[in-house]
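Q: Sequence in, structure out?
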Amino acid sequence: MPKLYNAKKLDKGLKIGLRDLNGTEWFADMTLDADKRTCRKINVPFLPEDKGNTLLAENKAKKLFEKLLQERLKETNQKIDVPGWQTKFFSLSLILLWITGMLWLALDFMDLNSFGKTQVLILHGALIIPALVSLGVLIVSHIPEGWEPTKKRKSGFLLSFIMLFLVISGFVLFYEDSFMNQLSYSHSLTGLILVPLIFWHFKKKSTS
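A: Exactly. Output:
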């Protein structure tokens, strides 16, 4: 954060000043919380000969500070607090499923070692058990809290649909060989994009 010249502290976390030594407009330096500090223009020219100029800058800075504090509070309240162990359990299960699925796809594409493919496929199927358990736990804690931040709602619906398709298609492929050719690559390619989509969903801003 750049130093402010002719700085004047107005309140805790708020001061005004000039960005340059010979600056021509006021800026507000605001600390909204431990993770968020910003320096903003307040659209007030610096007029040292005008007695009311500093007071105008102070009032506009305070209004902007209050507005940003309210927005920050709303954003913080909308953050979804998922226990770390649930996220780690789900992430580990998903990554292992993804790795074994991609390994099977690579072996199938190169037409290598049918026994190895079978073992990888068995491991992939076994990993669905902890993945479904962790997914169930995550859904119970995540979806009710995640309903309000509407920017994540659409991506959440998309991920839910994709995971539902993967679960159903996986069970169909396990129990019914006749669907193998039509469904296996759809299942594999959908699984390929799942991890990037989850990362995209996680990184999206949660504010409405």
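The two ends are 28 Å apart (CA to CA).
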